[in-house]
From TrEMBL:
It comes from the Eukaryota. GO terms for biological process: proteasome assembly. This is POMP protein. It comes from Calyptomena viridis (Lesser green broadbill). InterPro entries: Ump1. The gene is Pomp. Keywords: Chaperone. Pfam families: UMP1 (PF05348). Belongs to the POMP/UMP1 family. GO terms for cellular component: cytoplasm; nucleus.
Length: 140
């Protein structure tokens, strides 16, 4: 009986082929968010890319310095701690401050732009909590 079900699934047409494509395709706000022309444009200033990747570049420099001073184990241990802390978050529809990550990086006592005016990439996401959880778990 399970073999018959597998052959039916093999012969079925995927649902993605039924979706509209091209310039008149419907935009799914729940999964993709609002469209933004600004995000599709090239950077307007040469320093914009370095500012976007500032934290990544700073982490690489700190890891290289740590490796030269203490050896290979120190940056590897710190990277494992970063990865473990990044996995702990709130539900997808609630904002997560990632305070533990800021503490590991030493940014917990620094006041930056995102502390006062908030980071636009971490804006509030409004939506139905059940739908957002199903999307995060890959059920949709």
């Amino acid at each position: 009986n399970s073999r018959g079900t597998a052959s039916l699934l093999k012969d079925s047409i995927p649902i993605t082929e039924f979706s509209a494509s091209g310039p008149f395709e419907g935009h799914d706000l729940l999964h993709r968010g609002f469209t933004s022309v600004k995000s599709e444009l090239l950077p307007s200033h040469p320093l914009e890319l370095t500012e976007k990747n500032f934290q990544l570049n700073q982490d690489k420099t700190n890891f290289a310095t740590l490796r030269n001073i203490q050896g290979l184990h120190a940056p590897l241990k710190l990277q494992m701690e970063f990865r473990a802390v990044k996995q702990v978050q709130r539900l997808p529809f609630l904002h997560s401050s990632n305070m533990a990550l800021d503490t590991l990086r030493g940014n917990d006592e620094c006041i930056g732009f995102e502390d006062i005016l908030n980071d636009p990439s971490q804006s509030e996401v409004m939506g139905e909590p059940h739908m957002m959880m199903e999307h995060k778990l890959g059920l949709l």
